[in-house]
Specification:
By secondary structure, the protein is an alpha/beta fold. It is built from 30 helices and 41 strands. The chain has an eight-stranded mixed sheet with strand order 1-2-3-4-5-6-8-7, sandwiched between helices.
Length: 972
């Protein structure tokens, strides 16, 4: 809405305060500033409020608003007087207002920093979290306008409003004065207020998805009169899945006398349906969708699945249609899956919903699946079905205009029917929020992600979201930090999902391998080593092994305390006639099930080659098939002992190391902790190749280790607080940005960067300019020999390989000679910009960086200095703020980490000092988002201490944070 001429042009209508929010019950509403055009809406709203609520608001009977009241409540300057309204369908359902006051409680202007606040919510919408959402948004507005405290007078009987203030998480003070409760709220966000806000966000967004997946009734809009077509297909799938709710077919083209279609009620519009419709599946051409959405909104539909195509995937015109679709749906409080969606599935026995184009509803299982691509969704459903896996829920979001992977994570976090969440994503609309939600969800159940469009930086069609400029490898590292299992292909996602959904988490990396093929066992052994696991020598049961032999060997491995997981390899065995038998998969599966049922809680995976029916039988939660008698050939029997002896790998094969790997806590005992219990024991995943089984197991091992570490989160050491001057740094940053009229900010000079970093305890070794030989000699005399002579021209900076650096210059004669060599080789001093710097103790040259990515946020990076690390991309990353554990893992996660720990007999360097440097830099960019880029290069880490030889810092106005402030849905 635009301001009217009566409103001060100095305080224009703040459209950035507009927001769509999800309420407690999962419905959506619009929050926006109140304008002078809202007089009639305000009067209508007030007439629908009960006398009791009016009394609580005004402390006296107040049946109607006077003209003066209406004028007062609709005319704001958006600074000292602000009003916000919550709307659904364009009508008010709640309002909040603040008025700035002075110490005497009278109207005031800045610099007064207190305001009186009051709420009013329509009785029909109380209990939906309207007031809580309004408090979050009006508090953010107040902080933006320099208000630090809210004061409120509440009648003691108004328990609902007192609870809103009490539960907000803000620091508050209460007193009882003149028959009312006087509340004062400090508006500075606290850990508690942020936790309350995010908890409400999680419950609301999870509920919004749950309403879509478990509707009491479904209407398919656009159901064709003849078989075929999208709408008729969805209706058929709904009926064949045994959906437990009410189903309706809707098409405005139905004949007036038509009452049923495929056995369900048929109607020309939703208005003809006498009962509430919870979910509408829209399958009409794009130009008819607005009419269908309006019909749904006017008749109380709670959510939409839009299968219709012709939106953002079609270009600029389609993008605008998509944005208008979202705006229209949200104006009625509805959420959307789609457009261009494939549909949704919920296999819960109480729902049995298949509102999708999938012809066959998957079996009930423990895997939740979200995909942005319909084609990928089809492939995943098919792959899971072939391997006997079931789903708990499925969402194919199409263009992902509204409901996203973040919403699915919110739902999966608390869904008791989902043990593993699988997501195929082509974009991360809000990476900060995704990381936060994924970390929380991964702490209780695995999250497996495949990200498409890894190198194109694509955004969801129709979305205006920041595109991340960080490399895909960095995105992967940040996902790992959040506990996300990131895999490269949908096949790997299914492989990992099957193991994680059906087996307990491994307690460690030790793997037992057993089977009836020596070659397949050795392939599995090699694959384990390649994935960083610690396999035991394979046990060869020989081709003569019976199912009972498999059972006995597996039971023995599961009881063995020296292994954490078991991989069983199986090939068709040879019968009496010498031919391979392939039809006894069920018998072998039964034997393996019995071994697992009687063994300890360790994960088991099976690698098999052409054993018919084995995968399907293993996928069953239990097996009742009795083992049949088997006869083996004498020849096979005679070879058993010899074959068993031949399975031990040559003694030249190095045994897996038992010492802590870089990144492991050396204080952690190497004995494996107690394994975690599986939620659905007995489902054994089967794989057609050893590499696939081992890769899935390796992902489970890494995830289990992350879970154990996440149970005791890292900390930011308290000693940092004593050596950090945050106010001093803030003053420096403010002064330096004041001199930079360019909104893109400015780089700091060497001395400015040294001063700012010094406020956080990061000492940068000084450099002195050397524009000529005499200046170089004078600089060396000040610093003391030996010195380094370096060029600082942009094209030569940090390029020792080009000859722009001379080290260990011992005296004046050597310095003059080095200066002459540099200028003769590379150019004039004015081009080279040479400097002199005191030599640092010898050590390992490293690079430490921090930068702000528009999408991902602040990222801390570490690697070794030099061309090899750059060429190989050997850099590790963590999100800011980093903890002590993050810093320790960061320096140990690069491939060249052994260089820091005494590789090939060299002296180990001071990694503790390096970790402290990382923590200090993390604090700097976290405390001051204006610091958008820092590079410390090189950082020479010696056996004792470290030296920062170079530093560059860039300041700019901080980018907007999409994960802070009051909760809101993405804007359109």
């Amino acid at each position: 809405m635009e301001p009217t001429p009566e409103q001060s042009p100095h305080h224009a209508y703040p459209d950035h305060w507009e927001a769509d929010v999800v309420l407690r019950d999962g419905g959506t509403a619009r929050i926006r500033p109140i304008t002078t055009d809202d007089a009639e809406r305000l009067v209508s709203f007030y007439e629908q409020v009960s006398d009791e609520s009016k009394y609580y608001r005004f402390f006296a009977p107040y049946p109607r608003l006077s003209d003066r009241d209406v004028h007062r409540f609709t005319h704001h300057d958006y600074v000292d007087r602000v009003g916000l309204a919550v709307t659904i369908g364009g009508e008010f359902i709640g309002t909040v207002r603040y008025d700035r006051i002075n110490d005497q409680g009278r109207p005031a202007s800045a610099p007064a920093d207190e305001a009186e606040v009051a709420f009013l919510v329509q009785d029909a919408h109380q209990g939906r979290g309207v007031a809580s959402a309004l408090l979050e948004h009006i508090a953010a507005v107040a902080r933006e306008r320099g208000i630090r405290r809210f004061a409120a007078e509440v009648l003691p009987a108004n328990n609902k409003m007192i609870k809103v203030f009490r539960d907000g998480g803000y620091t508050q003070r209460r007193s009882f004065e003149d028959g009312s409760v006087h509340l004062t709220l400090d508006l500075e966000p606290t850990e508690k207020s942020l936790a309350v806000q995010r908890g409400r966000e999680q419950r609301a967004e999870a509920r919004s998805v749950q309403r879509l997946l478990a509707p009491g009734s479904v209407a398919v809009i656009g159901t064709g009169r003849t078989p075929g077509g999208v709408g008729r297909t969805v209706l058929r799938n709904l009926l064949s899945s045994g959906y437990t709710g009410r189903t309706y077919a809707v098409n405005r083209a139905f004949d007036e006398g038509m009452t049923t279609l495929d056995g369900v009620p048929a109607h020309r519009s939703l208005g003809e349906i006498d009962e509430q419709v919870d979910l509408a599946v829209i399958a009409v051409p794009a130009h008819r969708v607005p009419e269908a959405v309006a019909d749904c909104g006017e008749h109380g539909v709670q959510g939409l699945v839009v299968l219709s195509a012709g939106y953002a995937e079609r270009g600029a015109e389609g993008r605008e249609l998509q944005r208008e679709l979202v705006r229209q749906a949200r104006s009625y409080g509805m959420r959307i899956i789609g457009p261009n969606a494939f549909g949704i599935i919920n296999t819960a026995e109480s729902v049995r919903l298949n509102a999708s184009l999938a012809p066959e509803s998957p079996a009930r299982g423990r895997i939740g699946l979200f995909t942005q691509s319909g084609a990928i969704g089809i492939a995943l459903l098919s792959g899971l079905h072939r391997r006997g896996a079931g789903l708990s829920s499925f969402i194919s979001a199409g263009n992902r205009a509204d409901v996203s992977g973040n919403d699915f994570l919110q739902y999966s976090f608390e869904d008791p029917d989902t043990d593993v969440a699988l997501l195929y994503l082509e974009s991360l609309g809000n990476p900060r929020k995704f990381t936060r939600l994924a970390r929380r969800t991964a702490a209780v159940k695995p999250v497996v992600v495949v990200k498409g469009a890894r190198h194109s930086g694509s955004t969801p069609p129709g979305h205006a979201v920041p595109v991340s400029r960080i490399p895909d490898a960095t995105v992967s590292a940040l996902m790992r930090q959040a506990g996300v299992i990131r895999v490269d292909t949908v096949t790997e996602m299914v492989d990992a999902g099957l193991l994680l959904a059906g087996q307990p988490l491994p307690a460690g990396p030790r793997v037992a391998i057993l089977g009836n093929s020596e070659s397949l066992g050795l392939l599995t052994y090699d694959a384990c080593l390649a994935e960083g696991l610690r396999p035991r020598p394979p046990i060869d049961l020989t081709t003569a092994a019976s199912p009972q032999d498999f059972r006995d060997a597996l039971a023995e491995a599961l009881a063995d305390g020296t292994c954490d997981a078991v991989i069983v390899t199986a090939i068709p065995w040879v019968g009496e006639n010498g031919e391979a038998e392939t039809g006894d998969g069920q018998v072998l599966a039964a034997a393996l099930h019995k071994a697992v049922a009687g063994g300890s809680a360790k994960p088991v995976a099976v690698v098999h080659v052409e054993i018919g029916g084995l995968a399907e039988a293993l996928a069953a939660a239990s097996s009742t098939a009795a083992p049949r008698p088997r006869t083996v050939t004498p020849a096979a029997d005679r070879t058993r002992a010899a074959a068993t002896a031949s399975t031990t790998p040559p003694s030249t094969t190095p045994a897996p190391s038992t010492s802590p790997a870089p990144g492991a806590d050396p204080a952690t005992p190497q004995a494996s902790p107690a394994p975690e219990t599986a939620t659905s024991p007995g489902r054994i995943p089967a794989y057609p190749a050893a590499e696939r089984a081992v890769r899935a197991l390796a992902e489970a091992v890494k995830y289990a280790q992350w879970r154990r570490q996440a149970a005791v989160p890292g900390k930011i050491p308290e000693f940092l607080d004593d050596t950090i001057d945050e106010p001093g740094a803030a003053a420096l940053i403010e002064a330096q940005l004041a001199t930079a009229p360019d909104p893109r900010g400015r780089p700091l000079t060497h001395d400015e960067a040294r001063e700012l970093l010094g406020r956080y305890g990061i000492a940068v070794r000084p450099t002195l300019p050397a524009p000529d030989p005499e200046a170089a000699v004078a600089a060396a005399a000040r610093l003391g020999y030996p010195v380094a002579l370096k060029t600082t021209a942009p094209h030569l900076r940090h390029r020792a390989d080009l000859g722009g650096v001379r080290l260990d210059v011992a005296d004046e004669e050597a310095l003059r000679r080095a200066y002459g060599e540099l200028t003769d080789l590379l150019g004039k001093p004015a081009e080279l910009l040479p400097v002199v710097q005191a030599m640092a103790p010898r050590g390992v040259d490293t690079v430490v960086r921090a930068s702000i990515d528009a999408a991902a946020g602040a990222v801390l990076s570490f690697g070794l200095a030099g061309a090899p690390s750059e060429l190989l991309g050997d850099t590790a990353h963590r999100l800011v703020p980093a903890t002590d554990r993050d810093a320790a893992e960061l320096i140990r996660s690069i491939r060249a980490a052994p260089v820091l720990f005494g590789w090939r007999g060299s002296a180990p360097v001071d990694t503790a000092a390096l970790e402290e440097l990382l923590l200090r830099l993390s604090r700097l960019v976290d405390d001051h988002p204006e610091v958008v880029s820092v590079a410390l290069e090189p950082v020479v880490v010696a056996p004792q201490g470290l030296t920062v030889l170079g530093a560059s810092v860039r300041l700019a106005p901080p980018p907007a944070r999409s994960d802070l402030g009051p909760r809101r849905l993405p804007n359109y």
